[in-house]
Amino acid sequence: MLVNIKQAIALLKQSQVVAIPTETVYGLAADASNDEALQKIYAIKERPADNPLIVHIADANQVNNWAAEFPPLAQKLAKAFWPGPFTLVLPAKDSVSKIVRSGQSTVALRVPSHALTLQLLKQSGLALAAPSANKFTQLSPTTAAHVAASLGDDVAVLDGGACKVGIESTIVSVKGDDWQLLRLGMVSEASMEALAGRPALKNQQNLPKVPGQHSLHYSPKTPIKLFVSRDVLINFAKTSQKSCAALLIGEGAKPICKYVDLPKQADDVAKQLYSALHELDALNVAQLLVETPPADSEWLAILDRLMRAACQN
Ligand code: TXA
Ligand code: MG
């Protein structure tokens, strides 16, 4: 069910959920200070309660409503990457709902870069908790139609068009002068390292709990097989007993099965990745054949999503 911004605000103020557009993926939003509304997110997504939510805010001035500390390094990163596909995990104030942070001592915050959602945040005066607007472990939605396909027509959707970045935000935890990368995204590790003036902490023992990074994640219904070589993919399609469809990256020979081909440009692939997988999934073939991207750092977040999507087999 599509709603306009006025209806979206009214619903959010009545403890209802609304799917909202962001530049990364659509989020299933609720008032981040309202436990009754937050429970609905978990129920609709069928999401485990130990998987905390990102709180979306209108600007960096609101960080102090949620975080007990906003260290200079976090301020620097926020200034560089907000609004944008970048989430900061900071020590939470005691007042932050235990539901939004799943009982953790930290809270995740993001200023999204989407005009309609920024308008929604400003006009409503609310902060919005929003995980991706899909059922738990399924593919994330990058259009209003994807949201309806995953969550059903009863869920209210604010349609903001196709998402421009296309994969979920980079998540970084900051404590004092130290930072850790919790989820890869299109804000690169190199760009954060340049600003931070030091590399990310990699010490496994000190890793904060990163709930929700289940390896089975971002998955279409159809099993995925990854191929480093186009020739091997083509040969698999030719000789397989199963019905196949393929996702190709860049130029080259084509397989005999149906395929979607994406340009060899990381930003473009990120933007179209989930749409392509939704489209291939809808073909109801037995096997999806996916060509892996180049091993360069700009492709790491895309490779991460593909490996998680392929994890089911
Ligand atoms: O791009 C995005 O981040 C999208 C859009 C809607 O903003 N949201 C999104 O939400 O991807 P979700 O729930 O699918 O993923 C949020 C991730 C989860 O893996 C969760 O564990 C992590 O953020 N997270 C949230 N709060 C955290 C916290 N306090 N500490 C560590 N990780 C946290
Ligand atoms: Mg998600």
Shape: globular
Number of helices: 10
Helix content: 25-40%
Radius of gyration: 20 Å
Count of extended strands: 14
**Backbone structural class:** alpha/beta
Q: In the CATH classification, which architecture of the largest domain applies?
A: Alpha-Beta Complex
The overall average pLDDT, rounded, is 94
Which band does the percent of strand residues land in?
Answer: 15-25%
How many domains is the backbone divided into?
A: 2
Low-confidence stretches: none
> What is the CATH topology descriptor of the largest domain?
DHBP synthase
Descriptive account of the structure:
The protein is of the alpha/beta class and 313 residues long. It folds into two domains: 2-196, Alpha-Beta Complex (DHBP synthase); 224-310, Threonylcarbamoyl-AMP synthase, C-terminal domain (Rossmann fold, 3-Layer(aba) Sandwich). 31% of the residues lie in helices and 19% in strands. The strands form two sheets. A ten-stranded mixed beta sheet has the order 1-8-2-3-7-4-6-5-9-10, sandwiched between helices. Strand 2 (18-20) and strand 3 form a beta hairpin. Helix 1 crosses helix 5 (115-124). The longest helix is centred in the last third of the chain and has 16 residues, at 266-281. The radius of gyration is 20 Å and the shape is globular. It starts with a strand and ends with a helix. The mean pLDDT is 94.
In a nutshell, what does this entry contain?
The protein is α/β, with parallel strands linked by helices and 313 residues long. The protein has helices spanning 5-13, 35-45, 63-66, 72-81, 115-124, 144-151, 189-196, 230-239, 266-281, 300-309; strands at residues 2-3, 18-20, 27-31, 54-56, 86-91, 106-110, 128-129, 156-158, 170-175, 178-183, 224-227, 244-249, 258-262, 287-291. Helix 1 (5-13) packs across helix 5.
